Amino acid sequence: MITIQNLTKIYKIGDSTVIALDNVNLEIKKGEFLAITGPSGSGKSTLLHMMAGVDIPTSGNVFIEGKNINKLQPSEQAIFRRRHIGMIYQSFNLIPTLTVEENIILPLMLDGKKIDRAMLMSLLELLGLSERRKHLPNQLSGGQQQRVAIGRGLMSKPSLILADEPTGNLDSENTEEVLTLLRAANENYDQTIIMVSHDENVSSIAKRRIFMKDGHIALDKVV
């Protein structure tokens, strides 16, 4: 599913050099639920962004389903993300002028694909958003907004879901709801999920956990 080879990312900040990723190698199989943890500055979010193709490595390669995403042009990367990757951010990244329903189907609309209305209605029901589907993001709670973001990530049936601190802005009740949805996506749809979290309680739901330190993978275990 994902092969990461000798991945290095170096940032220049003034006269300083920061090595965010240092020769990282990693294999992730289809259907895995992987949590990436580690202290602030360990490289965990940088690694996730490299898999999403939203950041460019200094050296090394990322292969997703056999395709080297680093060799794609920016427009090709955008299309690849829409068709193969569901992104879930801590900040939700919803379009404020679009309704719940419109935010969820946005990637499909951008790709010119026909909307599966039956799946949309089923997904809204699963997310507990059926009664809110015509609401705008500012009319929703934080937990509801994150559920919309998850719905957007699931609607296009991506083989890979990348979640960057998906529960970081949520209370304990909404955190549990979001984790339940991610677990269901993994178990029911066989979607590969890679989640970055600094919270050990959140990362404990994953079946495989990676701990990063100083740009390296310090621990890789299956539980």
Automatic annotation (TrEMBL):
<protein>
    <submittedName>
        <fullName>Putative ABC transport system ATP-binding protein</fullName>
    </submittedName>
</protein>
<dbReference type="InterPro" id="IPR017871">
    <property type="entry name" value="ABC_transporter-like_CS"/>
</dbReference>
<dbReference type="GO" id="GO:0022857">
    <property type="term" value="F:transmembrane transporter activity"/>
</dbReference>
<keyword id="KW-0067">ATP-binding</keyword>
<dbReference type="InterPro" id="IPR003439">
    <property type="entry name" value="ABC_transporter-like_ATP-bd"/>
</dbReference>
<dbReference type="GO" id="GO:0005524">
    <property type="term" value="F:ATP binding"/>
</dbReference>
<dbReference type="GO" id="GO:0016887">
    <property type="term" value="F:ATP hydrolysis activity"/>
</dbReference>
<dbReference type="InterPro" id="IPR027417">
    <property type="entry name" value="P-loop_NTPase"/>
</dbReference>
<dbReference type="InterPro" id="IPR003593">
    <property type="entry name" value="AAA+_ATPase"/>
</dbReference>
<dbReference type="InterPro" id="IPR017911">
    <property type="entry name" value="MacB-like_ATP-bd"/>
</dbReference>
<keyword id="KW-0547">Nucleotide-binding</keyword>
<dbReference type="InterPro" id="IPR015854">
    <property type="entry name" value="ABC_transpr_LolD-like"/>
</dbReference>
<feature type="domain" description="ABC transporter">
    <location>
        <begin position="2"/>
        <end position="222"/>
    </location>
</feature>
<keyword id="KW-0813">Transport</keyword>
<dbReference type="GO" id="GO:0098796">
    <property type="term" value="C:membrane protein complex"/>
</dbReference>
<dbReference type="Pfam" id="PF00005">
    <property type="entry name" value="ABC_tran"/>
</dbReference>
<dbReference type="GO" id="GO:0005886">
    <property type="term" value="C:plasma membrane"/>
</dbReference>
